[in-house]
Amino acid sequence: MTDADDLKSRYFQQDRNGSETSDPTVSTAGKGRPARRILRAASLGTAVVAATGIVVWALFPSPARPPKPACGPVAFQGYNLTPQALATLKQCRAEQIFDLAQKHRSEQPQQALILFELSAQANHAPAARAIAEMYDPATWSRDTSPFPKPNEALALRWYRTAETLGETGVRERIAILVKPSGRSDMVR
């Protein structure tokens, strides 16, 4: 063995991979362990934070849409809504106004019509269909319609509006209303 080899063996050690380290007092056998401990601690910390987030999310979910106030009874002045009733209805969803109109339909068809129109203006397809049914000769009756007689042209207009808004099943009524006169250019 030469002096260079002896010097090399004193000051350099080879680790498991065959790489040399310059400090013979540091053991290379456990060199990767502190890094592994740090990695484990970081992983554990991340898992704890994630678990805490899931628990908080489960206990305190944020509502996707805030609930609307109940759409209660509304007051009419003759055939018009009172200002307070109109302010209340502005806070309601179209579906709630539609449900309220359904309650008025048989007893107060004129007021139901006003509520259906408000709901239809908010793009509620069933409301447009309900208005069409008030005009439609096939479904018209003195008890459920505020009109003295049916009106095919207006029924057709409201059925088309309902179809545009996505109401299903109105195409048949449109076809029937267009067919007797043979005209498709009725009121749109």
TrEMBL record:
InterPro entries, per database record: TPR-like_helical_dom_sf
TM helices/strands, residue ranges: 41-60
Keywords, ordered alphabetically: Membrane, Transmembrane, Transmembrane helix
Biased composition (Polar residues): 11-28
Entry keyword annotation includes Membrane: yes
UniProt-annotated stretches for the region Disordered: 1-33
Name of the protein in question: TPR repeat protein
The species this protein was found in: Azospirillum rugosum
